[in-house]
Every structure is written in structure tokens, then in C-alpha cells.
Amino acid sequence: MKGTKAIFIIFIFTIFLSHSVSATPEISVSEEMVSGSKPFTNLSITLSEAPNGLSGYNITISLSNASIAEIISVDFPGWALLKITSALPAGSVWIKAVDLNNSIIKGASNVILANFTVRGDGEGTARVLLTVSQIDDDNGSSLLYANTTPTPTPGGNSGSSSSGGGGGGGGGAPSDEDFKNIEKQESRDVDIHIGKAIYKFTTQDILKEIGFDAGISEGLVTAKIELLKGRPKKATSDPSGKVYRYFNVVVGTSGYGSSSKIENAYIIFNVPDEWLKNNKADSVKLMKFKDGTWIDLKTEKISPGTYRAYTPGFSGFAIVGTSAATNEMITQPSEIPQVAKLTQIPERKNEIQMKPVLIIGVLIGSIMISVMYLKRKELFKK
Fold this sequence. Notes:
By secondary structure, this protein is of the alpha+beta class. Helices cover 21% and strands 41% of the residues. It folds into 3 domains: 23-147, Immunoglobulin-like (Sandwich), CATH 2.60.40.680; 179-329, Chondroitinase Ac, Chain A, domain 3; 333-381. The chain has 4 helices and 21 strands. A 6-stranded antiparallel sheet has the order 11-14-15-21-17-18, with no helix packed on it. It starts with a helix and ends with a helix.
């Protein structure tokens, strides 16, 4: 009897232990291996659960073979108000983030820690490795976790990988822009449901807001803006007019930001009046690069220095200042006939002034002829 009771206790303990192990939060990366022959691979680091919230973390991302691939960009989710990375591009990069507003609450699940892009530079494959130096909960305690992604070890690497991100529009906002052309970028996360979706940007003074009407619910979708040093990578020419800034807007994955799943998309941006004055521009328009050419978008001024443009989708854009000089040149020919008429008016006036003189002269001549005729008649009678 005692033996049976002991076995039962061990059995219950085993079940409890296995349950505790399975409940341990996991940190995983969406893909364990990347191909050097693939131009760009977009990956995400996810925390499966935050039992006591999340305060912040310090994680290093490494590639096992930096000769065939490099990490070129890191995008942080909206909750990471304080964030920093080491220099990019690189074969290894450390990333740090802090949740200042306690956005990641107790019991949060599937928390995106970071999104990053790997560029392939040659043939072969490289393993993605994670080293978690620190990750704390809201109590200031170290969060107990299981790292399902292998860590760098001498003599090789081993381990399992977690499942990747989903399809459709959900998830991060991958970019294929040349990293060296990106001056500044900012990302925001919004839980997309049917209806209006609005993203507000705060870390720069140019792009303030984007929005659209969602046709279906997508869950958490990341939108990213990229202020560029030059025209977008996909643009083959510059637009006409004086360019204030080039930028990209990327929303979701799998082309979600330019798909039929969204409607009534718009962008709100700022252009200083001082810039318009210095560049002799009278108005502003937003242009979008589409199908190999720049197209004008309906743009309206909604307040001093602030504009709203309506776009059929998100991609590469240019803010352009326009001048009324072209319109003035077009209207000049219509003024030429008026000049000709003005030159004819004095001539007609002279003609009118000449007529009385001629009439008086004719009358005087007629009188003189009549007088001479009468005198001749009298002489003839004599």
C-alpha cells in the first residue's frame, strides 16, 4: 500500500513538473537558417509569454557565417520607447529596448521583441543565433525563459527553431530599401480590425500620420516609415519640381499596404513655410512612384505647414514644391491680342479727329467756288 502511494505521489509530481516546464516562456526567432543567395530575409524575435509583464531586454543576434550574410536593419515594436542597437550592417548586433509605458502587461502573449532584416551576400547558409544577456519583468526580476534558438558555442551550433510568422498582412513591415539610403526610420504597431486604422509617428517632424480603412481584421500589423537620403530604390527617375523629401511607407507583409484589403489610404505630413519661401514654391503636392513613373496625388493643406494626401496604396513617395510660373507662361499668349487692340485705338482716334477738319475745308472751298462763280456771272452780264 505504501509503495502504491509513493508511486502515486511521484506520478503527480511528474505531471506538475512537466506542466511547469511546458509553461516556461520561450524566446524564438522566426527562421533558424538564412540563405546567402536570397537578397533579403525578414525575421522576428518573439517572447511567447510575459507572465509578469516586460521591463526590457538586452539580446545579441549573430550569424554563424557572416561572409555570406549580414544583418542590415533592426525595427523595434511600438512599445519599445527606448531602444538602441550596435553599428549596422554587421554579422552580429546587440539590441536593447525598454518598455517605459508598461505596454506589455502581465500575461501578455506572443510579444514581438524585434524585427530584423538579413541581406544575402553569397552562396551558402548561415544559422541565426541568439544570446539573451538580460530580460526583466515589471517586478525587476529576471524573466525565466527557454531559448529555442541556438546560442553561439565553440565548435559548432545546434538546437531547434520555432515556427515563423503568418501570412496575409499581419506582422512586421519588411523593407527592400538600400540600407545606406535610409536616413531615419520609425515603426508603429496597431491591432487591425475592420474599419479605420491610424498610425501616428512622433520621432521626426515630417511624417505625422498614415491611415486607411481595413476590409478585414488582421491582428497586430506594423507600419514603418523610412526617411531617405535620395530617391527610393525602386524609382528610376526624379519627379518634376523641387523635391523636399523622399520617403517610403511599408505596412504589414506580403504587399498588404498596396493590396485591395485597404481603402481610402492617406498620409499627413509637414512642410515648413520657410522652405517654400526659400525655394520659390507656391504650393505642395505628394507624388507616388508607381508602374515606372511618378504620379500626382490629391493633396490638400489642412493647417499652416501641414498637408494631407490621398494615395491608392503605400510605397515610395516624394514631397514636391510647385510654382505658378508655368501657369503664368501658359496664359501669356492670350494677352497678345489685347496688346494689338490697344495699339489700334490711337489710330482710330486720330481718324475721328481728322474728319471735322476735312468737313470745314470742304465747306470753305465750296463757298469760295460759289462766290467766284457769282462774280464771273456778273462780269459775263456786263
